[in-house]
Structure formats: structure tokens, C-alpha cells
TrEMBL record, chains A, C:
<dbReference type="InterPro" id="IPR016156">
    <property type="entry name" value="FAD/NAD-linked_Rdtase_dimer_sf"/>
</dbReference>
<feature type="domain" description="FAD/NAD(P)-binding">
    <location>
        <begin position="3"/>
        <end position="319"/>
    </location>
</feature>
<keyword id="KW-0520">NAD</keyword>
<dbReference type="InterPro" id="IPR023753">
    <property type="entry name" value="FAD/NAD-binding_dom"/>
</dbReference>
<keyword id="KW-0547">Nucleotide-binding</keyword>
<dbReference type="Pfam" id="PF02852">
    <property type="entry name" value="Pyr_redox_dim"/>
</dbReference>
<feature type="binding site">
    <location>
        <begin position="139"/>
        <end position="141"/>
    </location>
    <ligand>
        <name>FAD</name>
    </ligand>
</feature>
<feature type="binding site">
    <location>
        <begin position="180"/>
        <end position="187"/>
    </location>
    <ligand>
        <name>NAD(+)</name>
    </ligand>
</feature>
<keyword id="KW-0560">Oxidoreductase</keyword>
<feature type="disulfide bond" description="Redox-active">
    <location>
        <begin position="40"/>
        <end position="45"/>
    </location>
</feature>
<feature type="domain" description="Pyridine nucleotide-disulphide oxidoreductase dimerisation">
    <location>
        <begin position="338"/>
        <end position="447"/>
    </location>
</feature>
<keyword id="KW-0274">FAD</keyword>
<dbReference type="Pfam" id="PF07992">
    <property type="entry name" value="Pyr_redox_2"/>
</dbReference>
<feature type="binding site">
    <location>
        <position position="266"/>
    </location>
    <ligand>
        <name>NAD(+)</name>
    </ligand>
</feature>
<keyword id="KW-0285">Flavoprotein</keyword>
<dbReference type="InterPro" id="IPR006258">
    <property type="entry name" value="Lipoamide_DH"/>
</dbReference>
<dbReference type="InterPro" id="IPR001100">
    <property type="entry name" value="Pyr_nuc-diS_OxRdtase"/>
</dbReference>
């Protein structure tokens, strides 16, 4: 039998593409060498959020007196890392089983094993040869281990770890060094700091989250420092030595100690076994057009492997879009409206252009900011750190970007996304009656501010 | 820069169905956005003026 | 001096109108007989949400073992009602002060005292006579005490109380009877039940929340019962006798005991002192057109007093709209897109038409439902009760209503509101890339379901 689509990799790019293709009536083969769900479900998005939920509750429990809950002996409460992980693993298992069932119910044929591409219509897996009319590569990415002196030794001894091992630690580290200041690094810093580990975060540049709007990144950095994270910026990693990372900071040597050293210095695309195809690649991954097609007709690449962003929701959207194009329903991704979330305390969520980017693109820019501290719900919840920043252009008032730091920022951003999807303006958002009391009123206030003035500020 | 037309998704689809040129319709929504009500009204006045030529406009 | 606008009442209708009018360059007099902020800030939206935050944390603390937090002796944790209220009062005070400062900074003149309208251009307050070109009535509403046998006596002894007294209780009642099954009744049932009071909720009709989409209301009702609330439906209140409410249920007498009996059987408009104007009224309140003008030109009525809904955000939106109309910027409220929220556990939020209403209006209806239990974030948070239901029409896919039951429903609804404000379709919501993992993915999945099929179900 010849499949309509062969999909390599069952992460959120691949498995969603598989379900969509089956829903559209296609015969689908899905090949996965490890676990259904990919990094996202097994070693990424989901397990980190499950642990972060526990960590956040731990922080809340410490404030229980203030909220009028008595009888907790603060000197006695402790983290039960094992139980946290048992719950986390149960969540992962349930979701992975759910996806497996969905694949089955939709009639997707799943092949367990490493897929090797023989030609664009032929893949071998576990001794079988399968044939298809189209190929979607969704092989994802893996953590990079840069050539730092001593790192190989440290990996062998189990001191240097990646996020994957960090999610399978037998015990909570007393002290941990995190190399890197990207989203994953910041989420682990949030997690371990909240759970009581001594966290040192080592960042090459002058601030963490260099891809995120400056004010948000700087705000969160200050907040993490306030909460006890030791953030070392402008530093170069010289070597790893025993349980220490040796840095150079402003010409001085600095030694950071950790039971574990979490290496979070980037991820690289999984492109092994694809060589025969002769795909065009750059250092980020396989090059694709807006239809997600590679230079080889009929071969698509979605998710982390195409190196555009490393976001599960984008991987899924790309998977759907590739399938739609395969089945003749032309569609493309609008890369200007891809949200990014950070599940720190408070959270960060952002979509679209920053103020600087908008100006660089030549827009006449209106910027409006509104703080949580002037919002009733934020105060009622005791969560008043953060703000919403709207970047709009002045001619029509069209919203170009929204940048949020708030306890529920990752929930709040969806309003911005659909607004931008529909080419919404600050007039539309200001006119929409937002319920009271909610954090979403801040969006409305910021929109009022971009037009004229907010009410509550 | 070409003039952008602010219209709601439903207004665009309705204009397309009715064969109305959305660029000729005045929006009464927030910030001058063309709402479905504006298209409905334009459609009705078009019916009253049978001489008017309908222009097709693809959505987007 | 003659004011451009005189505003009677400084609740969210009146004070927001005052700020807006001042921002638009008007000279504004604002008259308030009690506290700036009205019911909403002092006795409504804000204090209830502050207490509910404590109650929710109390529930979470009880689950701490499951989430991997050890060392809490569950037999020792107790509610410190006094501290909960101290925090609540501090939140209220901060917000009221904030609004007072805003009024001052915007140059609004505030008059303390009961305003009495002498004619449409003249109001007396605390011995002063003030003159204005326009009048906005924003006098709000108050709880009804229906003529139930024994209720007057029970009010005197402090057993029968309204929500206002419930927010000023010296101690947590061991048992409380709540008469009524509307939003306020349900929020207090949630609160007292979570804090450990024995709660009986007495409802005339067959279910609580008769104004809310049936499936949501029934779902929440079941959930409240599961959590221990005694809900008595189809009941008639015969009399109040000592600390008991005597009911008739299916021909049988039934006695419900409570240290307090919370009477939550509706609210009525505050229209005293307006008689001279000859305003057109119905049993709900002062009649207004879509510009919020009454039958008397130049006299507007906004918020609870016009009896449309009893919602703070609508009061504010109406206040702004009345002011815009006064200053010649024509605007009107779209009453089809007014959200309603209930801060129960889980929350409920809804906007627009229900399935039944949409059918009745003659739409060819598409309905799509997606459960929290199939959403990764919901599982990671351990909060998987609820669903999102989208009601759309089939011709264009326009969204007509969205009904949500979910832990953060009140945050999630804003996406639905702006979508409906922009006459958005399920195609737009499905195409918008929603971040993973968030509850907002459920909106996207439900939109996919309204078109064809959701991915994850
Ligand atoms: C710690 C961490 C937290 C994260 N948190 C978030 C988050 O909160 N939100 C977010 O949007 N993103 C998050 N990400 C990123 C997200 O996990 C990725 O963007 C997403 O998993 C990419 O999906 P994918 O389908 O492209 O690849 P992957 O999820 O990497 O899946 C690829 C799959 O292909 C399989 N495979 C590879 N080669 C072959 C082969 N030759 N044959 C057979 N199978 C093969 C792999 O085993 C794997 O299962 C996180 C990442 C990490 C590491
Ligand atoms: C317990 C409770 C919880 C609630 N929770 C929510 C919620 O979460 N979300 C929501 O949207 N709504 C909620 N509401 C409803 C909300 O409080 C009202 O819809 C809102 O307050 C209405 O605003 P308003 O400005 O019309 O009137 P009000 O807030 O009632 O303000 C009217 C003001 O006018 C003053 N006044 C009256 N007559 C005169 C006079 N003659 N002279 C001078 N001053 C006068 C009063 O003292 C009062 O301060 C809740 C209500 C209650 C009771």
C-alpha cells in the first residue's frame, strides 16, 4: 500500500499532522523512535508545567497566613520531589495515552522505530519498507552540548545535564547552576528557586531572554533576583570542573557551584537519516517556504526541525498547514502572529512586534502600557506585579504586538492573538466590554491608552 | 502605501456574496471598521439603485 | 458655575463616567452619599473576589500532599476569618483610595451627600445647589427583602442578612442558608462551602443560575453538590422562624437551619429623589435607549439603575457611552456582547447567545464543545473539570455565543468577546495559533470542531 503521507516523528508537529491528514481522508503512516508526543509531551512543555504547578502552590502555601489560613507550621513544610514527579509522570502518561488513542481512532498507522529515508517516497523502519506520496519531516530537536572544557567528563559523571535529565532527577538539587538565559533556562530557574534550591543562572549577554521585549525581560530578571536567583550576566563559560562552572566575568574568574549543572545553551535540529534527500539547510534547520514545503517537492518539514522557532503550538500549526497544502487546501502560516510564553512567576506572554521592531519597520507607533497594580482583580488575588504593553500603528490603530507580564499572562495573550488574527485595532479592543473584575480589563485599559487615555490610570 | 480596508470577517464574506466593492463602503464600527450592518445597508441601497455595478472583491 | 455633567452616584457607572467626561474636557460634578466605588468596590465585585481567593487557596492547601508538598498537618489548618477580612478590607481601601485619587487628578468635583434632583438641570446635595447641562443617574441598586413571613424579625435579630452584611460578618457561620440561586448566591455558596460552613442553597426553580446556559448551570450545580452544598430546588419559602427557613418542597414542609440566612432574592434600582423628573420606568428600572438617554433629553441613566443587567463592567461601559453621546461622539452599547462571569470553583463565563436562543432567533446553528479533560494545561494544573461550548451560525461561521466552565473561565472569555466584537468567525479562531500549553487551546479546538473536527478529541 502507498500512503498519502508518511510522517517522521510523533511530536506535536508530527502527531497533529497525522491526525489532521487522517481527518482529511488520507492514509497515514507515522514513525516514531521513542515516545508518542515527542519532546513536548514527554520532556518539554507538559512535565515542566506540571512541576511548575507544584512549585507555585508551594509559594502560595508560604503566604497562607496572609490570606487567612492558619495552622501551617512553615518550618515543617517541605518539598516531596518524588511525589511531585509521580504526579508529573501520571499527567504525561495520561496525555501520551490520549494521543495514542486518538491516532488509533483516526486510523493512523504508527510504526515504532527509527525512520531512515531511502528516497522521497520511501522510508525504512524496523526492517520494513514503507512507501508514500508525500513526506512530512517532524523529527524535532535536541539539546546542544557545546564544546566547553570539562563538559564531556561532567556529562559522564552526571553533573552536567540537559532539560531531559533535569526532569528525571532522583532528588532535588541543593544547588544548581543553569547555563543559559533562554525560556527553558528561566523556567527551570523559576522551578528550582521556588522549591528551595540555590540557583545560579549564567547568561552570556547583559540580560536574560534576549528574544523577548526588553521591558518584560528586564522586569522578570529583577523579579527573579529579588526572589533569590543569582543571575550572572555578561559572562563567558571557561570550563566545567567537578561540580563547578568556571566563568569569566568582566576579566575576573568566577566559580559557580552546583550539585547539577543544567546546560541550556540551545537546541539543534534532528536531521540524521535524511541525508539522501539533499535538503536545503541552514544552521537552524531545514529550509521551508510558507507552505512548509522544502526544496524537494512533496517533502515538507514542520516544527523544531525547520528551525524557525522552537514552539510546540507552531509545530502543530505547521503540521496542519503542511497537510492542508498536501490535500490541496492552500494555506500558510502567518509568522507575525506566533505567541511565545514563559511560565515563570509571574508569567510572560508575547506576540508580534516590539516597540523597537515596529519603529524599525517604519511604522508610526503608538505604545500604551497599563500596570497590574491598578487592576482590581490583580489586587484581589494579591498578584499585582507586571503590566500589559500594546504596540499599535497610528494610522488605523492596528495592533502590531502585545507584551504581557502577569500572573496569568499565558491565558491573557489569546485575546491579543485573535485580535491580531482579525487585523484588530485598539478601537475594537477598547470598545469590547471586558468583564469586571478580570485581568483582561488591563488589555482594554491599555487599548484606551493607545487611543487617548486609560480610565484607571 | 495602498489603503487598507478595516472590515470584520463576516462583513468581508457578506460583501463578497453580495458582489459589493468593500472599498466603497463606509464603516461605522470602532475606528471606522466596516461591520456586517454596513454591508447589509449597502446591499439594500444597491437593490434600490439597479444601475449600480457590482464589483467583486476577494476577501483578505 | 454650570457643570457640563452632574453625575449621581459614584459606583462603576458613575465614577467611570466622571473620569471619562473630565478626560473629554468637561466640568464634572460627582455626587455620592456613601463610599466612592459604589457597591462594586465596597460591597460587591471586589470584596467577594478577595475572599474567594482565600477560599480557593484553602482548597488548594488541602490538596498539597497530592502536589508534592509535605508537612502540613491537615487536622490543624483552619480559616482565620478575621485575617481574611483584614486583607479583603485592605484591598478595598486601596482601590477606593485609588479611584478617589483618579477623580482628583482628573479634576472631578466630588460632593459627599445624598443628591436630590430639583429639576433636570439642578441637584441639591448637603445644603448646596448645583447646576448642570446634563445629568447622569448612576444610583445603582440594593438588595430586595421580599415580604416573607418572619423576615423583618430575622433582620432585626441579625439572622437574615444581605450580601452587604455577609461581607462584614464577625465570624464564619457554622451553617448558612442562602435564599436564591443567582450569581451572587452561587458565589457565596462557593465561598462558605470552601471555608467549611454547612451551606444550604434554596432555589425556587428546578436549577440554579436560570439565566446561564443550561449545561453550564447544571454542571456547576452537580459540582457544588459533590462538594457538599445542599441545594434544595423547586422550593417555596414559607417563612423564617428563628434561625430556620421553612420551605415547601413538593408539598412537604422542609426546615433548613443556619446561623445566618443570606437573602439573595434580587436587587432593585435606587430611584428615590428622582421623582420630580417624571422618568419612564418599568419594574427593572429607568428606561433608556441605546445611547443611555432616558425619556427626558439630557438625562441619562447608566448601570444597575436602568435595570438592563446588574454588571459592573456594563455599568462602566454605559457610563463611557453616555458621556461620549453627551459630548457629541455618537456611540451605543451592543447588548449582544456583554459577558457574565461567576467566580465559582470552577469558574463560569459566558457571552452571547445560547444554543436555544440562537435557534429561536432562526439561525442555522453549529454547536461545538470541547472538554478540559482533553487539554494538556488543564491536566498539568490538576484542574480538568469543565468545557468550552461555541455557538456559531453556519452561513459565515460567525460566533454567536461562547459558554465556558473552567478554572480560569473568567480570563478565557475575553478572547470570545473581542472575537464577537469584530464579528469573528470560527475560521478566524481556528486559524489563530494559540500557545501551548494553555487553556485557550480549548477555544481553538472548539472552533475546529465547529468547522469540522477538533484535533484532540
Ligand atoms: C524543557 C522544555 C520545555 C518546553 N516548553 C515548551 C512550552 O511550554 N511551550 C512550547 O510551545 N514549547 C516548549 N518547548 C519546545 C517544544 O517542546 C518543541 O518546540 C516541540 O516539542 C517541537 O515539536 P516537534 O514535533 O517539532 O518535535 P519533537 O517534539 O522534538 O518531536 C520529534 C519526535 O521525532 C522523533 N524522531 C526524530 N528523528 C526520528 C527518526 N529518524 N525516526 C523516528 N522518529 C524520530 C523523536 O523521537 C521525537 O519524538 C519546550 C522544550 C523543552 C526542551
Ligand atoms: C455581592 C455582589 C457581588 C457582585 N459581583 C460582581 C462581579 O463580580 N462582577 C460584576 O460585574 N458585578 C458584580 N456585582 C454587581 C455590581 O456590583 C453592580 O452591577 C455595580 O456595582 C453597578 O454599578 P452602578 O454604578 O450602577 O451602581 P452602584 O455600584 O450600586 O453604585 C451606586 C452608588 O450611588 C450612590 N447613590 C445612590 N443614590 C444616591 C443619591 N441619591 N445621592 C448620592 N449617591 C447616591 C450609592 O451610595 C452607590 O455608591 C456584584 C454585586 C454584589 C451585590
Amino acid at each position: 500500500m502507498i500512503y498519502d503521507v508518511i510522517i517522521l516523528g510523533a511530536g506535536p508537529g508530527g502527531y497533529v499532522a497525522a491526525i489532521k491528514a487522517a481527518q482529511m481522508g488520507g492514509r497515514v503512516a507515522l514513525i516514531e523512535k521513542e515516545d508518542i508526543g515527542g519532546v513536548c509531551l514527554n520532556w518539554g512543555c507538559i512535565p515542566t508545567k506540571a512541576l511548575l504547578k507544584s512549585a507555585r502552590l508551594f509559594e502560595e502555601v508560604k503566604k497562607s497566613d496572609f490570606f487567612g489560613i492558619e495552622g501551617i507550621d512553615q518550618s515543617k513544610i517541605r518539598v516531596n520531589w518524588e511525589q511531585m514527579n509521580i504526579r508529573k509522570d501520571a499527567v504525561v502518561k495520561r496525555l501520551v495515552n490520549g494521543v495514542s488513542n486518538l491516532l488509533k481512532r483516526n486510523g493512523v498507522e504508527v510504526f515504532q522505530g527509527t525512520g531512515k529515508v531511502l528516497d522521497k517516497a520511501t522510508v525504512s523502519v524496523a526492517g520494513q519498507i514503507i512507501k508514500g506520496k508525500n513526506l512530512i519531516i517532524a523529527t524535532g530537536s535536541r539539546a546542544v552540548m557545546p564544546p566547553i572544557e570539562g563538559i564531556e567528563e561532567a556529562v559522564k559523571t552526571g553533573i552536567a545535564i540537559t532539560s531531559k535529565e533535569a526532569l528525571a532527577l532522583k532528588s532535588l538539587p541543593e544547588a544548581i547552576v543553569i547555563l543559559g538565559g533562554g525560556v527553558i533556562a528561566v523556567e527551570f530557574a523559576t522551578l528550582f528557586n521556588a522549591l528551595g534550591s540555590k540557583v545560579t543562572l549564567v547568561q552570556r549577554s547583559a540580560r536574560i531572554l534576549t528574544n523577548i521585549e526588553r521591558e518584560l525581560a528586564e522586569g522578570l530578571q529583577r523579579h527573579l533576583v529579588d526572589k533569590g536567583v543569582n543571575i550572572v550576566t555578561n559572562s563567558q563559560i571557561k570550563r566545567i570542573q567537578g561540580k563547578s562552572a568556571v566563568l569569566e566575568v568582566e576579566g575576573q574568574e568566577k566559580i559557580c557551584y552546583g550539585d547539577k549543572i543544567l546546560v541550556s545553551l540551545g537546541r539543534k535540529p534532528n536531521t540524521e537519516g535524511l541525508e539522501v534527500l539533499g535538503l536545503q539547510m541552514d544552521k537552524n534547520g531545514i529550509q521551508t517556504n510558507e507552505k512548509l514545503e522544502t526544496n524537494i517537492p512533496g517533502v515538507y518539514a514542520v516544527g523544531d526541525v525547520n528551525g524557525k522557532y522552537q514552539l510546540a503550538h507552531l509545530a502543530s500549526a505547521e503540521g496542519i498547514t503542511a497537510v492542508e497544502n498536501i490535500f490541496g487546501q492552500e494555506n500558510k502560516i502567518n509568522y507575525d502572529i506566533v505567541p511565545s510564553c514563559i511560565y515563570s512567576f509571574p508569567e510572560i506572554a508575547t506576540v508580534g512586534l516590539t516597540e523597537q521592531e515596529a519603529r524599525k519597520q517604519g511604522y508610526d507607533v503608538a505604545v500604551s502600557k497599563f500596570p497590574l497594580s491598578a487592576n482590581g482583580k490583580a489586587l484581589a488575588e494579591g498578584e499585582s506585579i507586571g503590566f500589559v504593553k500594546i504596540v499599535a500603528e497610528k494610522q488605523y490603530g492596528e495592533i502590531l504586538g502585545v507584551h504581557i507580564m502577569a500572573v496569568h499572562a499565558t491565558d491573557m495573550i489569546s485575546e491579543a492573538i485573535v485580535s491580531m488574527q482579525m487585523e484588530g485595532t485598539v478601537y475594537d479592543v477598547a470598545q469590547a466590554i471586558h468583564p469586571h473584575p478580570t485581568l483582561s480589563e488591563i488589555m482594554m485599559e491599555a487599548a484606551h491608552g493607545a487611543i487617548h487615555k486609560p480610565i484607571h490610570h | 502605501i495602498p489603503q487598507k480596508v478595516l472590515a470584520t470577517p463576516v462583513a468581508r464574506k457578506m460583501a463578497y456574496d453580495l458582489g459589493l466593492d468593500i472599498r466603497t463602503i463606509k464603516g461605522t464600527g470602532p475606528g471606522g471598521r466596516i461591520m456586517k450592518e454596513d454591508i447589509r445597508r449597502a446591499g439594500e441601497s444597491n437593490e434600490k439603485k439597479p444601475a449600480a455595478v457590482a464589483v467583486q472583491e476577494t476577501p483578505g
